[in-house]
TrEMBL record:
Pfam families: HTH_1, LysR_substrate. It comes from Oceanisphaera arctica. One of its GO terms (biological process) is DNA-templated transcription. It comes from the Bacteria. This is DNA-binding transcriptional regulator.
Amino acid sequence: MEQVYHHRLPKLSNILSFETAAKTGSLASAAECLCITPAAVSQQIRQLEEHLGVKLFVRSKSGVELTEPGISYLAFAQEAFETLRVAQQNMAQYQGDHTLTLTALPALASRWLMPRLYQWMDRHPEIDLRIQATHSLTDFNTNPTDFYLSFGDEHYPQQDKIELFRDSVIPVCSPGLLQAPAPLDNPEQLFDYPMIHVDWGRDGRFLPDWSEWLLAANITTRPPNPGPSFNLSAMAIDAAVAGRGILLGQQSLIREELQQGKLVALSSLALPLNKSYFLIYPKRILNKPKAQELLDWLRQQADSDRT
């Protein structure tokens, strides 16, 4: 490509298309993120390459890969965009922006976060607190999320984070289902009941299942009982409360049901999940009113679970 040098900066939209394509590894995915066509993304990246006089990507059927100049330029582009985002965040103080947005997995939002969050809301009525529940990954560059309660942190290497807690599972059921007092004297008694199963799909390997729990209880002669299966933890908990079987319930999600007697623990044997829950956030959001206070409060809530 012919060497070109411009004092004039490239179009911001061209740089944004480049950064998004580099992040997603695909022109089609970048187009979806930016709400434009793949052809438009391709054209904007080509214009940027012509402006800079270098090839930024190697294109293939599987997607796009950064060239060495592309890797170098991406670092500068990301730093520049982050500076602009910080500047925009700082403008909030002049606009009277008192909004904070929390995003979390649905079960974590409804069963761990919300029962606690009302207390913080009562203390800070001046803050417009917005709660989003989703199973999707959060892109802080395109989503209004300020804090994300995430299962694991491997998808967010560039963001600030704190580890909240590592959950564990114990066998529980509705007291109306039991034929004997809880906890059970012998784990073999669990086979008198249907076993509720939770299938988290690709994240299932991080959630202990009945086979693992029975092995930890030194029961190796029988497979787990069949029973209803759910892909959402909240539905599995509701089924256990309704007496549809015994469940390996996450202790952080069933605390209220245990306290109210809707569920009872059948054994004290708890197996930890293979990943922790994290609070993920871009550092720039700490400039927003009460953001630091909310972060500290969430950390305190997680710490209180460990004591």
